[in-house]
Design goal:
By secondary structure, the protein is an all-alpha fold. Helices cover 79% and strands 0% of the residues.
Length: 135
């Protein structure tokens, strides 16, 4: 009885370990989609001169990017890529900084600076994707 219980627990533990990479990948995809939607909202708000839409996009982006700014990122970043997690964390911090600059620029009614900050965020995204995903 004890042996069968031990085997069952072991099998559940092993299957749980094998299921986590798929769950992590699904979480990453969902998170990246949320960041893309946030960027689209910021861009659309800029094109239509809707500062409130841009601010909402910034809030959504800052919320979605939290996944890249913690230990969870280690689970899905490539192990063979040297300094991948440090690189991704730095990009995340830069994105947050530029996102906050967007809000500041919008509060000062400076749409040009807000759109320049959007461009800088886009550069950070592209930089990370170029290095980590090897486009």
């Amino acid at each position: 009885m004890k042996k069968s219980l031990l085997v069952l627990i072991s099998l559940l533990f092993i299957s749980n370990l094998q299921a986590n990479p798929a769950e992590d990948k699904a979480q990453l995809k969902a998170n990246m989609r949320a960041m893309l939607q946030s960027m689209e909202m910021i861009q659309k708000g800029g094109f239509y001169a809707k500062p409130e839409m841009m601010k909402e996009g910034v809030l959504n982006l800052k919320d979605a990017i939290k996944l890249l700014d913690n230990d969870h990122a280690k689970k899905y970043l490539p192990q063979e890529e040297k300094y991948a997690e440090k690189f991704a964390a730095k990009r995340a911090k830069m994105i947050i900084m530029y996102a906050e600059d967007i809000t500041t620029s919008l509060n000062e009614e400076n749409m040009d600076d807000a759109l320049e900050d959007y461009s800088q965020i886009l550069r950070q995204c592209s930089s990370c994707h170029l290095r980590i995903r090897k486009w």
